[in-house]
Amino acid sequence: MRQNFLRLVGATAVFALGLGYARAAVDDYAFQLVQTRIKKGQSFADVRLVHKPDGKLVGDAIIFATRLDMAPDDMESMTSAIALTQSPEPGLYRFKVDLTDEGRWRMSIAAKIQGETGTLQGRLILQATP
Q1: Residues 122, 103: Cα–Cα separation, whole Å
Q2: How far from 42 is each of 50, 78, 95, 97, CA to CA, in Å?
Q3: Mind listing the pLDDT tens digit of every residue in the chain (130 residues)?
């Protein structure tokens, strides 16, 4: 009976440590805007995906959720078009955006990174200028 209890405690500890490691691994990555100010209208927003510990770009992520809204200017319900397009180079993700008004726009991005568990989520702020 005691051996079974010790096995259960040991297995739980290993499982818990594994969960902590997986969570920390996805936190080692970050999205970064190449340019934070973009002219109002249809344009492109380039985003880097960086592995923070070594600064290397990550080019094989799977982007599966995007959203563009004006939440930073208290207008979260005001959304606009955003679409992933052909990447000009590995580690750089290009999005076609339609910034219909001047002001601050929030880009929300979710991605799966090859070889990592969990989902990377990023929220980046663009400034639409005249």
Answers
A1: 19
A2: 26, 16, 11, 6
A3: 555 444 444 444 434 444 443 445 899 999 999 999 999 999 999 999 999 999 999 999 999 999 999 999 999 999 999 999 998 899 999 999 999 999 999 999 999 999 999 999 999 999 999 9
How many helices (H) and strands (E) are present in the chain, helices listed first? 1, 10
pTM check: above 0.90: no
Q: How far apart are the first and last CA of the chain?
A: 73
- Tokens at 109, concatenated: 């991005």
d(CA 47, CA 61): 12
